[in-house]
Amino acid sequence: MHNYEYLGAYSLENGEDWTLTIKATQQEMVKGQSGRDESCMVCYFEEDAKGMILNKTNAKMIQTVHGTPYVEEWIGKQIVLGTEKVTAFGETTDALRIRAYKPKVEIDPMEAIARIESCLDLKEMKKVWQELTNDERNNKQVLTAKNNMKNEIA
Question: pTM of the prediction?
Answer without folding.
Answer: 0.69
